[in-house]
Design brief:
The protein is an alpha+beta fold. The chain is 45% helix and 22% strand. The protein is built from seven helices and four strands, in the order αααβαββααβα. The longest helix has 20 residues.
Length: 161
Amino acid sequence: MKLHTAISLCAVLALSPVSHARADQTAEQAPPAAYDAALAEHTGADDYGMRSYVLVVLKTGPTPVTDAEARKAMFAGHFANMERLSESGKLVVAGPFSKDPDGWRGLFVFAVDSVEEARALTATDPVIVSGEMVAEYHPWYSSAALMLIPGQHEKLARKNP
């Protein structure tokens, strides 16, 4: 019975806020050896190396652009808009989906704090303006290391779209 009581007491102490506070304080006093404060600041990382994003799923819209020249111009504007948003540091990742039976066409990952800001950025895209695509928004919490992708992508691509 005494052993059971001691185990129960240990479990209560391990789960108590005081125990967690001590563990958190220890973690704050000694960051991991690989921690890079300047990189964490540059990427907007929180204490866990994470940050907020908004995922935007682009889906087939109600108004497909069928004229070949208008379609070509619309997609040229779409790529130019993505380049502009990437250079501004807001668009972290973008790309198309393979043929999808649910009409999923592409994905944007925006480094923004709110769906409203992502909506405003997406509203500047010609595929949205034309109705070729519509957007669905999802707040997302993920690694701040995603912020490093745009700078690395240039080093990998032999051709521009």
